[in-house]
Write a structure and sequence with these properties.
5-stranded mixed beta sheet, 17 strands, 18% strand
């Protein structure tokens, strides 16, 4: 028997949905590289593209040590959702569903990796409608209630939904009151009917009526084409609709810097900023190409647009904007990380032994060479970051005596294990111990040279 949603709000993590600028969920656009760009430009919250529950249930959750991401991977190796610490607490997963039990299974898969779960109840595309998802749910309020109450009762993170308006205002207001009673923390409203498209005017007055009817935050959507072209337009749209926050789709798709209080950036800079993120996180070429086509938008007939149409690989795409060197360097770093992680799988560590204090002692003769690391990265820093993320506290103990080979010894204690590092100085011995620990944990220690042995 599920709990009353109103009784579980204190157990559910809260997310502020008032006075926020939000990247809307957009198919093929809302993947991680674009979301990170929106956040960098000033967006407060970013929604991922809608993913259908059936598809998500086929995925396996993989912690990608090379990219420092969490990937949800299909059996064929296709990554359909990806997230990282840079968007932690600000990324919302939107799902397409018509079944409460399936929706909860998917949400539980993602509960520790996203800030909130949103249910798509506004998609007007035939695929969604025929499957009873998206805007089709607006005709089945009992199913809406079942899905939302199941999610709210079963999750520790916020639940929201995004709808379209109805032509019958009385039914519309009855529906949003029911949705609020389910315990959702916010309601996104696209101010168009299911049969209407972007060329039709957004019904800002209906969004305002909804905002006046319910007490939870209302997120206004649908103003991109006519109302929002610059950052200053966002607040005007919010006031016009009486909403708590504004969600932006097409305006952000064409101009991601619409979120910048300081004003929009030149198109060429936005493209390069996006490309860097796409390269850094190994985004697929076909998706990168699609996003760039949207950014170029009315400029596809320019020389860059013509070249983009002919490009078939990430390197070819980068070459259009003179970024092949950046691409090659990023690929080399990924290769080095992969080589290092593969080396960690080799039985190079000495068999642990118990010392007099009961610690498992792990030793490996590893030499810390400073020039093999960037100026702002050391094995010790990498380890501290890992410990912070996993609520661990490492303890470094330097032995004051110098052993026969004139090296200092550092004992690094982490949990029930003690890692031994030996080096020519006390500081270097700490780094050597951190290297041994990273190897044992399978963590990439930050080395950037080609020689990873």
């Amino acid at each position: 028997m599920s709990k009353d949603p109103k009784t579980i709000t204190s157990e559910t993590s809260q997310m502020e949905y008032r006075n926020k600028t939000i990247l809307a969920p957009m198919v093929r656009i809302g993947r991680m590289a674009f979301r990170l760009l929106a956040l960098h430009n000033g967006a407060d919250i970013v929604y991922g593209e809608e993913i259908i529950d059936f598809k998500m249930l086929k995925c396996k959750r993989v912690e990608n040590a090379i990219l420092n991401t969490v990937d949800f991977v299909m059996p064929d190796g296709d990554v359909i959702f990806q997230t990282c610490d840079k968007e932690k607490g600000r990324v919302v997963f939107q799902m397409g569903t018509a079944d409460a039990e399936r929706a909860l299974k998917v949400a539980k898969m993602l509960e520790k990796d996203v800030a909130a779960i949103d249910v798509n109840m506004g998609c007007p595309k035939s695929f969604s409608l025929q499957g009873g998802m998206g805007a089709a749910l607006l005709k089945t309020p009992d199913k809406i209630k079942d899905i939302l109450t199941t999610l709210v009762s079963g999750l520790s993170i916020p639940v929201t939904c995004k709808i379209r308006i109805l032509s019958d205002l009385d039914k519309m207001l009855e529906l949003v009151r029911m949705i609020e009673s389910c315990g959702v923390q916010a309601l996104g409203v696209h101010g168009r009917l299911t049969e209407e498209r972007p060329q039709h005017a957004n019904h800002d007055d209906v969004i305002k009526l909804i905002a006046q009817t319910i007490s939870i935050p209302v997120i206004a959507n649908g103003g991109s084409r006519a109302a929002i072209n610059h950052y200053s337009d966002i607040e005007k749209f919010r006031v016009e609709t009486g909403a708590s926050s504004v969600m932006i789709a097409r305006a952000a798709q064409w101009n991601p810097s619409v979120f910048r209080k300081q004003g929009s950036l030149p198109l060429d800079q936005q493209i390069k900023d996006y490309l860097k993120l796409a390269v850094d996180y190994d985004n697929m070429a076909y998706n990168t190409k699609y996003v760039l086509q949207q950014l170029l938008h009315e400029n596809m007939n320019d020389s860059e647009g013509v070249k983009l149409l002919a490009a078939t690989s990430m390197r070819e795409i980068c070459n259009i904007w003179n970024m092949t060197e950046y691409y090659d360097e990023a690929q080399m770093k990924m290769k080095q990380k992969l080589q290092y992680l593969e080396s960690c799988e080799e039985p190079a560590l000495k068999r642990p032994r118990l010392d007099d204090e009961g610690y498992q002692v792990i030793e490996l003769d590893m030499k810390y060479i400073r020039k093999e690391y960037s100026n702002d990265t050391t094995p010790k820093q990498v380890l501290y970051e890992w410990c912070k993320k996993n609520n661990k506290k490492p303890k470094f103990i330097i032995k004051s005596e110098v052993i026969d080979d004139r090296r200092f010894t550092c004992h690094l204690i982490l949990g029930e294990k003690k890692y031994i590092g030996r080096e020519k100085s006390k500081k270097y011995s700490e780094q050597a111990a951190a290297m041994v620990c990273c190897k044992d944990l399978g963590i990439y220690d930050g080395r950037i040279t080609k020689d990873l042995k």
